[in-house]
């Protein structure tokens, strides 16, 4: 890897980790990175993250620099996408979240809930930006 590309990659990772860590500090929300890989599409990458929600845990409104597909692995999660009515997904259900759309998620079931989040995003941008 060329020095400039390496520097850019390291800076992008540092920025993504800072935003990622801020999001992970939401009480009862635990993120585990599974896959992080560049794509053949220039300046894009994909990530897969397991997100575990304690009972009644809430992931506050945030956006991503690309698309997300959320697949519920366990439990019941309510998603709120900006400008749309809430959507409640059960184990085995999936939801497409367009790039830049503010959204939040809450465990509305009893017990823990988990999702597999797959992102296709622009390289070098923070994965998560909180919306105030």
UniProtKB/TrEMBL annotation:
The Cupin type-2 domain, residue ranges: 51-114
Keyword Signal carried by entry: yes
Pfam families linked to this entry: Cupin_2
Keyword Signal recorded: yes
Keyword entries, A-Z: Signal
Region forming the signal peptide: 1-24
Name the UniProt record assigns to this protein: Cupin type-2 domain-containing protein
Source species: Ralstonia holmesii
């Amino acid at each position: 890897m060329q020095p400039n590309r390496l520097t850019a990659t390291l800076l992008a990772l540092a920025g993504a980790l800072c935003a990622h860590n801020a999001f992970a500090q939401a009480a009862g929300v635990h993120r585990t990175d599974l896959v992080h890989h560049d794509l053949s599409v220039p300046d894009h990458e994909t990530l897969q993250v397991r997100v575990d929600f304690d009972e009644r845990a809430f992931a506050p409104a945030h956006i991503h620099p690309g698309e997300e597909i959320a697949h519920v692995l366990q439990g019941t999660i309510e998603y709120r996408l900006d400008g749309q009515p809430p959507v409640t997904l059960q184990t085995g259900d999936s939801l497409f979240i367009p790039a830049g759309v503010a959204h939040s998620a809450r465990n509305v079931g009893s017990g823990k809930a988990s999702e597999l989040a797959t992102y296709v995003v622009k390289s070098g941008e923070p994965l998560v930006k909180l919306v105030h």
